[in-house]
Amino acid sequence: xxTGIENIDEAITLLEQNNWxxxxxxxxxxxxxxxxxxxxxxxxxxxxPAYGPTSHSAAASSAPSSSSAFRHVVPSRQIxxxxxxxLDFRVEYRDRNVVVVLEDSSTVGDIKHILENELQxxxxxxxxxxxxxxxxxxxxxxxxxxxxxxxxxxxxxxxLPPPSSSHSGALQESLNQNFMLIVTHREVQRExxxxxxxxxxxxxxxxxxxxxxxxxxxxxxxxxWPPSATDDSMTLAVSGLSFPCHRLxxxxxxxxxxxxxxxxxxxxxxxxxxxxxxxDFEDATExxxxxxxxxxxxxxxxxxxxxxxxxxxxxxxxxLQFTAEFSSRYGDCHPVYFIGSLEAAFQEAFYGKAxxxxxxxxxxxxxxSVLTNVFCSxxxxxxxxxxxxxxxxxxxAWDMTKEANRARFLTMCTRHFGSVVAQTxxxxxxxxxxxxxxxxxxxxxxxxxxxxxxxxxxxxLMMRLMAAMEIFSAQQQEDIKDEDERExxxxxxxxxxxxxRISLEADRAKREAQEREMAEQFRLEQIRKEQEEExxxxxxxLEQSLPPEPKEESTxxxxxxxxxxxxxxxxxxxxxxxxxxxVVFDFVASKGYPWEEYKLLGTFPRRDxxxxxxNKSLLEVKLYPQxxxxxEAKE
Length: 635
Known about the structure:
Elements: H1 8-17, H2 22-29, H3 58-62, E1 86-93, E2 96-103, H4 108-119, E3 127-129, E4 150-156, H5 170-176, E5 178-185, E6 190-197, H6 202-213, E7 220-223, E8 245-252, H7 256-266, H8 268-273, H9 291-294, H10 315-330, H11 342-350, E9 359-365, H12 372-380, H13 383-392, E10 393-399, H14 403-417, H15 419-426, E11 435-441, E12 446-452, H16 458-545, E13 558-564, E14 570-576, H17 581-590, E15 598-602, E16 607-608, E17 626-633
Parallel strand pairs: 1-4, 5-8, 9-10, 13-17
Antiparallel strand pairs: 1-2, 3-4, 5-6, 7-8, 9-11, 11-12, 13-14, 15-16, 15-17
């Protein structure tokens, strides 16, 4: 209230720095003109009030007061030297945010000069808005405004044209914009300056206002929302809010009980003069509330429909009705109940990855308990409880009002938790309901960490939930470590198996390649052998078909040919001069040099004999009486 500091972490830090001396911490953030507030830990109490009621006498002000956090001091001749106080400003302009840090001795004009350099906007064109004390001029000293350490401002430039943007990017730009919501709390007449991005929803705004005002969302009565803001799930960008600043007013909606009390106060005189038979008394149901709700009693006889049907075949259908009836009685702000069987809730909470596991909270409802209405409306529907349960628990519910449903749950309880837990629940009296069971899953069994009865408070319920969460977190860390080690071992095994598989594939591929190579070599060898055999057969056939070699003393003309092979060897033979040239070709082929692969060349003159007509005689091709020829492989 004095410092304007609303951040709890910042307040705790300041208190720790001052050894939890409240007055010293306040002195550290509020500038004083004539000195400092005196801490109750001071050695001497000075006279003359600096804070507090001015009607106190000097003697009375010298004594410490247990009802006030402030002590009285006199303007001292020895002014305490103070370090300059630094102020942080977060300034928004369209889609930009600029952080400015200044001493409290600076002026508003100094902020504008810094923004002029950052935003490239003339200081004379700026309107700096967001001051809690109203509009200020450039010469105003920041110290005189008594500002908190952290402040949020925004810049308006009505004389400058807005930046042009395409229609396709308009929505995205509005989602990225920051809206300043000035929310006035009607009952205490206090304003809150809240910054939200365009992508935030109206529901998020209402939940943040709940943290500031302690007014639950379902009891908030708003003024100032645009007509287009019809759904709490809408984002601020599309809700029609004024940019960059919009004013709203919130108050607490009157409850039916308050309405009844006000009506009764107005009608007191009428009741006093009415007849004793009570005929003139109005029925409480005309005010929208029954006797059970007025006194925190939930009577099943006054309910229009049960929370859960009796002998429901499907647990999921029963929980759907339970959730709908719970919402109709206590509002939409309640824990998100798991729809499904208890076994499915176990599966969801306990049997995923260790990092994803949660505690299981089982809510056991009983309409005939005097604690049920208060527990549901004031504790189970408290937004802090709802938020904590949604983050850390799977919540499952069951109605124990009907005997058949009670027996069914006890059977499930015996099967999943054992007879001891079932007997504990069986012995609970009706007025001890509702019950809240906190279950933690373990490797071998499910452990009941806590059984919370209905006669508790929000703080106690939150503490017991947090205590269970601490136990679960320790076990979860062990499970995560074990799971990580197991996954690491499995990864190593998978890598080894994969390496072995790749090695086997490589060996098989190598073996198959070798087999293919050997098969190819064998095939080529077979072809070579067949070709050699074919050549040999041709050679033998040609050799047998050659005419006999004439003798030297033959009376016919004989031509003697000397043939040189590519390897340098020579072979000679005599032919009749009248023999055809084909006979020479056959002779050469019979020696393994077919004329299709080799050519027969003459020396003088050099000529290719294989190009001559094979039907001509040796005499006609001038290979008579003798000639030296050599073989050369064709290209």
